[in-house]
Amino acid sequence: MTRATVRSARALLTAVCLCVSAGMSLAGQTGGSAMAPVFEIQDLFKGVRIPKIVVAADGTVLAFAKSGHLLRRSADGGKTWSEAQEVGSDAGGNAIVDEGTGHVLVVRAGRGYLWRSRDHGKTWQREKIVVKSNAVGHGSPDSGVPASTGASESGITLRHGKHKGRLLMPARAQPPKGNNDQEWW
Fold first, then answer.
1. pLDDT at 138
2. What pTM value is reported for the model?
3. Which pLDDT does position 10 carry in this prediction?
4. Which residues make Cβ contacts (< 8 Å) with residue 67, sequence separation at least 6?
């Protein structure tokens, strides 16, 4: 073993021990239940396997059907849920919470708009957005290869650095027919 490997192993072991001891003291202070995660399977949307989840600025948990047009809200950390409500008939895409404003956005980049909630997911308004193409000219709604945010994860707000406050949303651009003759895979 090299010195670097031994140092790395020693640092990892120390970190694990610190985490375990911190968890044990926390569990001791709270009667032992703080460190016991609970996983409960809930069928929020009939026929939808993978809901998208974000937490609004007020702590409300928002679960969106995969397409992003239906939403269920929970004010108690996911124990109970509201009935499904429609964000918008043509809504879809990914959700993101703008941590600067507290607004919740459902971005439909491929169509050039988003849906915005200023009240933690209770009501929604549609807004037009500008989507710029990437370096090879793909991504904007009129590029012929629009960006899709529908099958991606939720976005984030950058908290540190030069671009603090910037919203980042994963997206994909793929050829319309998906054949292997494309030069820009």
1. 64
2. 0.68
3. 38
4. 92, 150
Give yes or no for a contact between 91 and 133, defined as CB atoms under 8 angstroms apart: no
Q: Are residues 83 and 2 located together in one domain of the fold?
A: no
Q: How many domains does the chain have?
A: 2
Which of 60, 130, 140 is closest to 95 using CA atoms? Answer: 60
The list of the chain residues with pLDDT below 70 reads: 1-35, 109-110, 135-152, 172-185
- Inter-residue long-range contacts of 66-71, CB under 8 Å, 24+ positions, other chains counted: 66/150, 66/151, 67/92, 67/150, 68/92, 68/93, 68/94, 68/95, 68/106, 68/108, 68/150, 70/45, 71/121
Q: The domain that contains 87 carries what CATH number?
A: 2.120.10.10
Shared domain check, 95 and 26: no
HSE, side-chain direction, 13 A CA sphere, residue 5: 2
Q: Are residues 89 and 14 in the same domain?
A: no
Phi-psi bin for 51: left (phi > 0), alpha (psi -120 to 50), beta? beta
- Considering the domain architecture, whether residues 25 and 110 belong to the same structural domain is answered as no
Q: Which range marks the domain in which residue 167 is found?
A: 41-173
